């Protein structure tokens, strides 16, 4: 993903703001376009750049051309930006969408129904543009047709094994939803499996919604853990969460004023549980690097650390948010607590595991879809 990010510990530069790029895959009829439409309409003030194989499949009226990014770029009524591109042009269009003046907060690539998601993910990870970061592979499956889809397209098992997040859509149309959820879960590799109907997925699961005074009842990712008001983000008129499938995921906020030991932290990350989809925030590694805090970005098994200098007077603490499905938040909190260390001196080789996941480092893993 490029080498423009300074990863030394001399505190010389902060990493650039990076836009997450989410790959949205699934076979024809699974509900990808419905889910994307839902995200576009429920973006909570954020601007979504959508790269799709067939623009006509998005049933939203295009109201105006959005500047000089090419004929395939239009401004939609909700302020989102959409490109219809060939996969071979992916890196070019990512660069155009990532320009600051576009104001994009997240880019969603909707793969065609017969696309090979691994190749799209590989292209995103291999992008040389410093303004984007891999945001995960989301696989959408049709619960009602899942058995027939597997019979016709056995490659779906491979796609599920690659996914970071699986949305089991149309769950209300199957007679045995628990069986389908269990079967899908057995085919994934530690991916979070989230039930849905009508493609309704809280956008906070995929990206950080931009704060806005106009937003009513929308959660920001950073305060998701402490909102208990019973508001249904899928239905602004609902009285509570009861009976709504989007409640199938959990989140944990972890804060510590004690530095974390990098070896213990990496053991925690290497053994992170099935269903833990996303981790974000920053960690204080204490005497192992007193100059920098380490911003962490983990999606599924993908992991990156970004060292950046502590601001003058900034309180040195670890602040992390974890989100997933069935992740056991109490146990995770205890495991993170066990990563704390008040040792006054640095472990000479303790940082090696962390530095392996710093962008551009010599030991950085190859740009495979799941480097974590």
Radius of gyration: 20 Å
Q: How many individual β-strands?
A: 14
Order of helices and strands: EHEEEEHEHEHHEHEEHEEEEHH
Number of helices: 9
Low-confidence stretches: 1-15, 55-78, 213-247
Percentage of residues assigned to helices: 10-25%
Beta-strand content estimate = 15-25%
Helical/strand content category: alpha/beta
Instruction: Specify the overall morphology.
Output: globular
| Quaternary structure classification | single chain
Strand order of the largest sheet: 3-4-5-2-6-1-7-8-9
N-end to C-end Cα span: 15 Å
Report the mean per-residue pLDDT as an integer: 76
Biggest β-sheet, characterized? Answer: 9 strands, mixed
Structure notes:
This protein is α/β, with parallel strands linked by helices. The model is unreliable at 1-15, 55-78 and 213-247 (pLDDT under 50). β8 (165-169), α6 and β9 form a beta-alpha-beta unit. It is built from nine helices and 14 strands. The chain has helices at 32-41, 90-97, 117-125, 146-152, 156-162, 177-187, 262-270, 329-337, 352-355, and strands at 19-25, 48-52, 62-65, 73-76, 81-84, 106-110, 132-142, 165-169, 192-195, 250-256, 276-283, 292-299, 302-309, 318-324. The radius of gyration is 20 Å and the shape is globular. The strands form two sheets. It has a nine-stranded mixed beta sheet with strand order 3-4-5-2-6-1-7-8-9, with helices on both faces. Strands 10-14-11-12-13 form a five-stranded antiparallel beta sheet, with helices on one face. Helices cover 20% and strands 23% of the residues.
């Amino acid at each position: 993903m490029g080498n423009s990010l300074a990863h030394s510990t001399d505190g010389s530069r902060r990493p650039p703001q990076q836009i997450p790029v989410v790959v949205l895959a699934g076979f024809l009829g699974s509900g990808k376009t419905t889910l994307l439409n839902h995200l576009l309409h429920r973006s909570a003030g954020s601007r979504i750049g959508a790269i799709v194989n067939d623009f006509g499949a998005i049933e939203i009226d295009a109201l105006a051309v959005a500047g000089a990014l090419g004929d395939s770029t239009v401004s939609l009524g909700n302020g989102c930006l959409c490109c219809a591109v060939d996969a071979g042009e992916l890196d070019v269009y990512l660069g155009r969408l990532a320009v600051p003046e576009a104001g994009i907060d997240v880019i969603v690539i909707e793969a065609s129904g017969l696309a090979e998601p691994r190749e799209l993910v590989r292209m995103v990870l291999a992008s040389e543009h410093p303004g984007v970061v891999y945001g995960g592979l989301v696989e959408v499956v049709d619960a009602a047709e899942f058995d027939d889809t597997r019979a016709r397209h056995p490659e779906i098992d491979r796609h599920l094994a690659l996914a970071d997040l699986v949305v089991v859509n149309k769950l209300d149309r199957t007679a045995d939803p628990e069986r389908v959820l269990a079967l899908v879960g057995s085919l994934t590799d530690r991916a979070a499996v989230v039930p849905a109907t009508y493609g309704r997925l809280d956008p906070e699961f995929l990206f950080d919604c931009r704060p806005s005074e106009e937003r009513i009842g929308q959660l920001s990712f950073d305060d998701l853990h402490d909102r208990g008001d019973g508001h249904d983000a899928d239905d602004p008129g609902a009285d509570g969460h009861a009976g709504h499938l989007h409640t199938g995921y959990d989140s944990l906020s972890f804060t510590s004023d004690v530095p974390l030991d990098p070896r213990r932290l990496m053991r925690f990350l290497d053994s992170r549980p099935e269903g833990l989809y996303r981790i974000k925030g920053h960690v204080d590694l204490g005497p192992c690097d007193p100059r920098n805090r380490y911003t962490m970005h983990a999606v599924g098994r993908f992991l990156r650390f970004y060292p950046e200098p502590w601001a003058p007077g900034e309180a040195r603490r670890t602040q992390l948010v974890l989100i997933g499905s069935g992740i056991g938040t109490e146990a995770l909190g205890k495991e993170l607590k066990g990563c704390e260390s008040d040792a006054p001196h640095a472990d000479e080789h303790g940082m090696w595991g962390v530095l392996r996941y710093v962008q551009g480092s010599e030991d950085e893993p190859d740009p495979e879809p799941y480097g974590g």
